[in-house]
Design brief:
Length: 170
C-alpha cells in the first residue's frame, strides 16, 4: 500500500515552504495552498501562517484520503496521481488516469471518480498506463504554457512532471 507520509513529503518539497504573493487570481500561497483554494474549501487558514504540518494535514484530508490513494500498491503511481491532482484538480486527474487505464486494456467508465473499479484497475495495469498518463499531463501543461498568461509557470510544471513521473520524457 502506498505511503501517504512519503508522498506528501515529496509534494511539500515540490511546492516549497516560501510564502509567495503569487497570482492575482489565486492570491498568496505557501506550500502550494493559495488563499483562493483555502477559502473555496471553507478553511480560514492564512497562507502566511500555514506550517508544514498543517499543509500536510490539508493535503492528506483533501486529496490523499478522498482519492483513496493508500489502496494503490505502487508508490510512484500514487505520488503521480497526488501531485497531478493537486495541480489540475482531482476530477480531471482521475479522468485522465481512467483514460490511460483504458488505453492499457481496462474498460472503465471515465467519470473522474476514484472508486473500487478504478483502484483495482490501477493495481492491475497501473505500470502499463503511467506513460499515457504522463503524456496527457505533459500535453496539458504545454498547451497552457503556450498561452502568454501562463508561460511563466512552464518551468515549474516541467519540474512537477519530473518529480511525479521521473526524469525521462515520453
Amino acid at each position: 500500500m502506498a505511503d501517504a507520509d512519503r508522498a506528501i513529503e515529496k509534494l511539500l518539497a515540490l511546492e516549497g515552504s516560501e510564502y509567495v504573493e503569487a497570482d492575482v487570481e489565486a492570491g498568496p500561497a505557501r506550500y502550494g495552498l493559495t488563499t483562493r483554494w483555502l477559502r473555496a474549501a471553507g478553511l480560514a487558514d492564512d497562507p502566511r501562517e500555514i506550517t508544514r504540518e498543517r499543509a500536510a494535514q490539508i493535503y492528506r484530508e483533501y486529496w490523499w484520503e478522498p482519492l483513496m490513494l493508500e489502496a494503490i500498491t505502487d508508490q510512484q503511481i500514487a505520488e503521480a496521481l497526488l501531485i497531478t491532482a493537486v495541480n489540475v484538480g482531482a476530477e480531471r486527474c482521475v479522468r485522465w488516469w481512467q483514460q490511460a487505464l483504458n488505453a492499457a486494456g481496462e474498460d472503465l467508465r471515465v467519470d473522474g471518480r476514484m472508486g473500487p473499479r478504478t483502484l483495482a484497475a490501477t493495481n492491475r495495469h497501473g505500470r502499463a498506463a503511467i506513460g499515457v498518463f504522463r503524456q496527457t499531463v505533459e500535453r496539458f501543461y504545454r498547451a497552457l504554457a503556450a498561452r502568454e498568461r501562463y508561460a511563466r509557470y512552464a518551468r515549474g510544471w516541467e519540474r512537477r512532471v519530473r518529480a511525479a513521473f521521473g526524469e525521462e520524457t515520453c
